[in-house]
Every structure is written in structure tokens, then in C-alpha cells.
Design goal:
By secondary structure, the protein is of the alpha/beta class. Helix content is 47%, strand content 15%. The strands form four sheets. A six-stranded parallel sheet has the order 3-2-1-12-13-7, sandwiched between helices. The structure holds 5'-O-[(L-methionyl)-sulphamoyl]adenosine. 5'-O-[(L-methionyl)-sulphamoyl]adenosine binds next to β1, α1, α7 and β12.
Amino acid sequence: MGSAGHQSSTFAITTPLYYVNGLPHIGSAYTTIAADAIARFHRLLGQPVLMITGTDEHGQKIQRTAEERGVAPQDHCDEIVSGFQDLWQRLNINCDRFSRTTAERHGAIVKAFYQRVWENGDIYAGRQQGWYCVSCEEFKEERDLLEGHICPIHTNKKVEWRDENNYFFRLSKYQEKLEQLYAAQPDFIQPASRRNEVLSFVEQGLQDFSISRVNLDWGFPVPSDPEHTLYVWFDALLGYVTALLDPEDEPTLENALKQWWPINIHLIGKDILRFHAVYWPAMLMSAGLPLPGRVFGHGFLTKDGQKMGKSLGNTLDPFALVDQYGADAVRFYFLKEIEFGRDGDFNETRFVNVLNADLANDLGNLLNRTLKMAGRYCDGKIPAVSPETFADNHPLKDKGSGLAEQVRSAFDQLAFSTACEATLGLVRASNKYLDDTAPWSLFKQGKQAETEAVLYAVLESVRLAGYLLSPIIPGLATAIYAQLGFTGDFNEVTIGQRFGYETHSLWGVLPGEQPLGKAQPIFQRIELEA
Ligand code: MSP
């Protein structure tokens, strides 16, 4: 599955382009962390990778937000965008492209794409009547609304009645082609629950949707009728295409599509599934373009079991979280603790307990105490033990040897928690092995060779764990490698050349006699204030 297996093929992944109605919240951080981890995994595999994120800046919601603040929409967008960029830096997000829908080059791509769809006869003028949720930027069916015409996603907002002349996209024409797509490519929509949701929506019969608005300035004019403004979602989805342009490229579709298209994975939250799994492939079919590899819709985060929201006053501020606990801690908690695809919860006590147990105790202490012993018993060097001398059923060699394949298949399925659990299994086994073999007493008994063999096996297992977890906790992985005497940083985009998966994902890689770095706790235990 996926593109693992052919190392030289390119790999492109996107997060949604986030609305700039406010600073990023934990939901946007969650998608971005996950996309970053996948991108990093593919870099380890040695593939050329393009990780795309960005912002969705047009439409009524943004225009109103700017008006309420009394600032020009572009100034408002610029300000919020710098907040996004700041958070991604703090979270150690290694994105290759940051796509903004207000960029001039994006206008050229939208125009060219619209032209193709227009020439294909898929755009026509009509009349749109219905309930519109400005927060979703989406028309809602009467039957989907809560009592009092409230949007089920934005329960503090009333939907608005619209009755206007709009241009429509002929979605209904693509009914059969979409059904064929879902049948021919069963993993186009993941996980399975999301796929089923889409299938039953499509089964009800697809209706054309309007792609223009009147009485709205903040957006691109409709190329065939500049009195109208292009619907924000039509413009936003194309931001994925614009992102593929190299900085020096002329903004043409040909240039955008030359290297990275089709995108391998669109990572999104479940609330915007329809746009990505139904509207977007139909738009691409209309323009005659190949389709993306898959659309993965993750679940929603709650806090202490409750839906997060400004009105509930229980939002989780990602800036505060990362400032207090650091990027690796935040990344690890969300990817390890929540089964990707399902809803998940944040609870601070649980958060602290997980980090202390897995990162401070199991991983951090293991490395620290083993390094100290290697300092005393092995002259501060990796013991010169040949990995072939370990029997195949040696507990750590045995566990470590199959791990790379397990982790790789977990990453292919975006099963981050499975990848973490499998790797932590080796870490826990190493702790047990250390206690069982007690190298401190072996050393006292003068059993130098046995002592060295034990320490080698444990240090090698920590190395492998650090390596395989590096897409999730790149900072800690870099510290582990440094203390084991390697030069290199897991934030390098060419990491797959320096520490290639073909070798570093195997067990038995540590070179004997390599001088060790200074032993320092890689993750401080967190004390939760009462
Ligand atoms: N602008 C559109 C996307 C256009 S893509 C061409 C948009 N932006 S958004 O900022 O509102 O949402 C971005 C992402 O945040 C979505 O994937 C959404 O699912 C996610 N989340 C918003 N709240 C969330 C949680 N509470 N938990 C997890 N993710 C959530 O939609």
C-alpha cells in the first residue's frame, strides 16, 4: 500500500489550508503534527518529499472577522498567518511549502483551472436557495440543522437564508465516475468508517453545488463573470495545486503539475471529508487531471471528555502547551495516545503520566543508565561487539530485527500509535533485559565480555527505538543519536541519505569503539502542580 517500496518515487502530503479567522487551535496542530510525522518517515525512506501546509484566507468568514476587528482583510490575514508560522516552528514542523490562497500566483492557477472546467461544460448559471453556515462556509440541508436553524458543528451560530444567482458546478454528472473511483480504489478514503460515510452520501444522489457568491468582495472574481466572487472552497482546494509550484516557476498549471502531482495523501479532519472525497475528485475529473492517492479523515479532539469550544471556555491552547512541555512531548502524546482516525481526548493528568512513563522512564532512563555503565565499564565507547555474535533468538535482537517492517507498515496505514507501541515494546524489553542480566554484577565478577555484550545489545536497542520514533519525536531522536556518538540531526531534510532506512532501521548497526557522547537525561520528568 502507499508508495513505500519504491524509494525514488516522490511523496507529497498536505494538511488542510487552515482558515485564518483566528490563531491556530489544537485541532489544526493535530493534523499538522501528523502530516509532519508522515513526511519525516518518507524522508527516512530516502524519497523526495513535499510536505504542504498553508492557509485559506478568502470568503465571508474571514471578511467578517476582519471587519469586526476593524482591519483590512489582507492585514488581518498577514497577522494571523505569522501566528501559524510561529506555531509550526515551535512544534518543529518541517514543512516544505506554506500555501496562502491570497498569494498572487494562486490567482493565476485558479483562473487556469476554472477555464478547463468551464471548457468542459461543467459550469452553468442558476439560482441558489438555502441555509448557509458562514463558519463552515457551506450550505446545509434543512434536515441536518438543529432546532432554531443552528448548525450542528457551530452550535453558537445561526445559519443564514440565501436566495441568489450563483454559478454551479455540475457535480451530478460525476456520480457514476465517483462511484467507480471508490470501487476501484478502496483505500481512496480512509479509515473505513469515513469511506462508508462518503459512500452513503453519494448513494443518495449528488447535487450540483454553487461555486460563486454575490455581495462578497473578499475572494477571486469569477473569470467568466467578474460580478461574482468565487466560492471560497473552490479557491481553497486549488491551493494544494499552487503549493506545488517552485518559487521561481511561472504560475501555470503545467508547472504546478510537473513534479509532485498527484499528491499522495490529503490529511484532513472528518468535518471536511465531503469536500475532499467528493467535490475535489469531481473537480479534478472535470479538469482532466489525475486524482490524489488517498484522503485520510482523522477524528476530533475533546478535552476532559467534552467537545472543545470557545463558548464552553475549554479550548486547549497549543502555544501554551508547547511552551510548557516542548514540541516532542506534544507530538508524542497526540500521536501515541490516540488511535489515528478515531476521536481522542486530552487530559492533562493523563498527558503527564504518559510522558513520564514512556519518555522519561522507559526510554530516557534506559539510555541514561546504560550510557553511564558504558562510561565506567567500557571506557566511554560503544563496546566492540560484533552483532553477528548474538544468537537470533537473543531477546533484543529477536525483537529488534522484525521491528522496522512493523513500523513501516504502521506508518503506511498512518497507525502512529501502533508504530509507537511496537517500538516501546523493544524499549520495555530492554529495561527488563538489563534488570535480568544485571551487567553491574557481571562487571564486578570480572566478566568483561558478557558485560560488554549486554551493554551493546541495550544501547543498540535504544538507538533503533530512537531512529524509528524520530518522525514523531525528532528532537529526542537527535539527542539519543548524539549521546551514542553519531553526528547528524533528524531535522535535516536529507536525513535519508545520512541515516538511511535500509541500514539504520535494522538491529546491529552501532559501530564498536565509537566514542560515546555525554550522558544527559533526554527528557526531564514532569511534576504536575497540585
Ligand atoms: N479552510 C478549511 C480547509 C480547506 S482545505 C483546502 C478548514 N479550515 S479549518 O481551519 O476550519 O479546519 C482545519 C482542520 O482542523 C480540519 O481538518 C478540522 O477537522 C480540524 N479541526 C478543527 N477542530 C478540531 C478538533 N477539535 N479536533 C481535531 N481536529 C479539528 O476547514
